[in-house]
## 1
Amino acid sequence: MTGSSRTQLILQALEEASSQNPDLSTFYTFHRALFRTLAQARTEISGALEIADKEARQARLLQGQPLLPFAALPVEAERFAELVLDVARILSEYDPELAQQALPDGPAECLALARQRFEEGQAGGERDEPQSEATLAQASVGLALKPYLEWAAEQVLPYVDQERWKRGYCPVCGGAPDFATLDAEVGARHLVCSRCSSEWLYRRLGCPFCSTTDHAKLMYYPSEDGVYRLYVCQVCRRYLKTVDLREITRSVLLPVERITTVAMDLAARQEEFGKVQCSDSDSGSRWSVIS
Ligand SMILES: [Zn+2]
Ligand SMILES: [Zn+2]
């Protein structure tokens, strides 16, 4: 599938989800605008990615270090700053209160903030608190970085030995997961990176955020049709939305699933479980199947 036909499929699926949930139309309008802008930015990325040689890659992975340093991304400062402004406009249209907030002053500041966000967001297995709510500048820069990270991740992920990594954070960029899948054959669990969308194998039981395997502290709420599960951890108060691909016959587009499962985010936050990264804002109705 070419990039542009996948983009079209995703936009179409978001459109359908919107028409099925008219009370969420503002939410879906926001996500369509954001997705379109980021997808366009991705088509404009030029340059090559420098990937470390085999020995250096293996050494990094063995030490639990992700493969992609910020400096490897071909971020062109002027274009990046324009994208940050576009994203900030989309965020402010969705949440007018954000419009009052300051934005980075020029390309150099955008780039510096992007590097900072990239490094702060590296889970590394050591973070114990969810990040605080992002400012407009932080959120815009974080989202504007996404097309670059996804572009790089597609090239880097094939170099990851899935059987050997199995950590709670992304082997490519070090980000935390914001979604998971149980695969169609044996139900193996893959985590999905909140930043670069890489998917990596993780153990079936256990919290990827705090690593606890205490059964008494981990639970999940299944949806009525058994397709979705909301995993929550009582130790670190984080949650993970999951789709069980054994229970689903239609084709699944993960970028769409992450958005259309908004009701699970709301249900989790109502119970005061935290989101891993506050990169955008959500609104919508209650996840009705969780009671
Ligand atoms: Zn990642
Ligand atoms: Zn936990």
## 2
Amino acid sequence: MKTPTIEVNTRPESLKEWQAMLKRIFGERNKKLYTPAECLLHILEETRGIAQSLRKETDTREMTERLATIFGWLVAVLNYLEIDMEDALWFKYPGICPYCFVEKNCLCISDEHKYDPDEVNLNHFRRDTERIPRSLSEWQKLFKEIYGRVNDITMRQQIWNHFMEELAEMSYELRHKDKQQLKEESADVLAWLIAFCIRIDVDLDEIVWHTYHGECNVCANAVCKCPYV
Ligand SMILES: [Zn+2]
Ligand SMILES: [Zn+2]
């Protein structure tokens, strides 16, 4: 029988803490069994269930565990490549829409925008690290502030399609081994995962903790001992 310790059962707050917890549970096993590309394929496999739920218009609850698992595998890729998820997300979304620079109610995201960052202006926001959300829930709140209005009037399927687009872009960068581009694309994948959670009204922080509460969701060990699946 496993004896949980305080450390094991402490709920992560910041994205760095989530990343560290998932590294402790799965880091060793993933490195032994998978390549980063295979971790990304796991995300793709999980997207099937979401697409199916959207097509059949089934209950939101059916999607929640898959969304948490997608988060888990996204973190697996980033842990593998030693990319800090919080840095990646803040670099791309430093508290504002990086396309139109508003803090609230962006509408530009509904237009076709080519990402042409104004680095000087963006760096000004990036440097203000005091404003980095302290938890996954706070990140979700921030995205709701910036994109909530347009998110509300966009169909769930469209948001999911946008997530898939970003996942495809991340796959391209992984295959081309461009770490900086991969970092930026991974931020978009997470941003659109959060956007989907906002749209279907689930708290990603809650569902991730529900799935990975300090241990592997399958073998229930603090350090996963699951075989290859
Ligand atoms: Zn905007
Ligand atoms: Zn396990």
